[in-house]
Design goal:
alpha+beta; Aminopeptidase; 2 domains; 12-stranded mixed sheet
């Protein structure tokens, strides 16, 4: 098997597109990241794109936007995982972890640990959901609106609160997060639910080529929960995406949060597969 590192985003999407498009829900994160990099390459401080080929056919693909985890596609041949891990190490890249479908992420983690030592810890176990029809729109008081640059500070505050609650050990790049938020707002990619001109919930939306939309993050401050604001907002934003011609909407959930998983299913989201976010623990660090 041959592992290659590709420099151009468009070239890479052309190379691995048939693999990714076999399972658009499972690969919505990678497709969404590639779309952002293609349109706004300065959003992230750097990126690494890898493909594994056998007899000219792509059998595995992965990407990383440092300092975040490797995003791994479902391989056609699990035998591609070990050479992929070895090539990444040989390139001098040290990954903080891996995120992907349950089987491929666990396989990559095992290959990585076999080469560098250490162990893994689970950050989140996730459900990947797909919606093609909104079945329940909720009945919350208030209305939706698209966020503007005047809302940037609130969006960033709530985004930080979402991360602190969902992934408390996460340490990311604050500057790149701010750039992504500003870019998303410019493109109409953040929405707020308001009651009496007071924002009570938020979500984001972004493209997931070839014909999908990613929904998230979804956040309601604790004091505003229990009124159905997030349900109404996610249903509305999902409906807008479908009305604009997108085939499906996708979102990731923390499987430990039974309330949010049930909410999305009421709206019409169906669980397509499970994923896992794993952190690599160095040999000299307690697991």
């Amino acid at each position: 098997m041959e592992v290659s590192r590709v420099e151009g985003v468009a070239e890479y999407r052309e190379l691995v597109g048939s693999l990714l498009d076999r399972a658009p829900a499972r690969h919505n994160l990678i497709n969404g990241l590639l779309d952002v990099l293609r349109r706004r390459p300065d959003t992230y401080q750097a990126y690494h794109l890898w493909a594994v080929q056998e007899d000219g056919d792509v059998v595995a693909a992965a990407m990383q936007t440092p300092p975040y985890n490797l995003a791994l596609a479902e391989p056609l041949d699990e035998g591609a995982i070990a050479p992929l891990a070895a090539a990444i190490i040989d390139a001098g890249v040290r990954l903080p972890g891996v995120l992907g479908g349950l089987s491929e992420a666990n396989a990559f983690a095992a290959a990585w640990i076999a080469l560098v030592g250490g162990s893994t810890s689970t950050t989140t176990r996730q459900g990947i959901y797909e919606l093609t029809e909104v079945r329940h729109r909720g009945d919350a008081e208030g209305r939706e609106r698209v966020a503007t640059h005047a809302d940037l500070d609130l969006i960033m505050e709530w985004h930080d609160a979402f991360i602190a609650e969902a992934v408390p050990e996460f340490t990311g790049d604050l500057e790149s997060r701010a750039r992504r938020a500003r870019s998303a707002i410019e493109e109409g990619g953040y929405w707020l639910w308001e009651v009496d001109d007071r924002a009570v919930s938020m979500t984001g939306s972004s493209a997931a080529p070839p014909d999908g939309t990613r929904i998230g993050p979804v956040y309601t401050p604790p004091a505003e929960r229990g009124h159905g604001y997030a349900t109404a907002l996610v249903a509305h934003v999902s409906d807008v995406a479908l009305e604009r011609g997108r085939r499906a909407c996708y979102l990731h959930t923390d499987l430990a949060n039974a309330t949010s998983n049930a909410m999305y299913q009421r709206i019409g989201y169906e669980r397509m597969c499970d994923a896992i976010d794993l952190r690599f623990v160095p040999p000299d660090e307690p697991s």
